[in-house]
Design goal:
about 150 residues; single chain; 3 strands; mainly alpha; 3-stranded antiparallel beta sheet
Length: about 150
């Protein structure tokens, strides 16, 4: 069964313009075209498009995605190269995840800080808190700041 660009875009929850852009950038060499040049997507194209979307969401540049697709089309001789590219991007995502966790911890700390201050009516309440009154997960932050002061 074949799908139009609109139907495939709907299945993938992306705009048709996204698929057109990917095609223009050479990322859809596997998509067939009708004699009139209309893109004809098949069910098996969906896996490729999902991988492409995943790599894009993972922050991989389009140029590297194109390289990955080209290597995939070359067959088993490029398995090692593809694995290396995936490993590199995976590490990049793990690094981003760590940065987001650190950011969330800071936001959670500041939320606690201001809730405590609001309940006391002043930020000065934090000057008189003993370490045990600070939630355990925020104590390393306070210690780190104290050490840098």
């Amino acid at each position: 069964m074949f799908y139009t660009i609109g139907e495939m875009a709907q299945k993938l929850n992306v705009a048709p313009s996204t698929l057109r852009y990917y095609d223009k950038e050479g990322l859809l060499p596997f998509v067939e075209r009708s004699s009139g040049g209309i893109r004809m997507f098949k069910d098996e194209d969906m896996e490729w498009l999902r991988v492409l979307g995943c790599l894009k969401k993972a922050g991989m540049p389009l140029k590297e995605i194109k390289t990955f697709i080209d290597w995939s089309r070359q067959g088993d001789a490029t398995i090692g190269q593809r694995l290396e590219l995936i490993e590199k991007q995976r590490q990049s995502v793990l690094d981003q995840q760590k940065q987001l966790e650190d950011t969330l911890l800071m936001l959670d700390y500041k939320r606690w800080y201001y809730r405590t201050a609001q309940a006391a009516g002043t930020c000065a309440v934090h000057d008189s808190l003993c370490p045990e009154e600070v939630p355990e997960r925020f104590r390393p932050l306070k210690e780190e700041w104290k050490a840098k002061s």
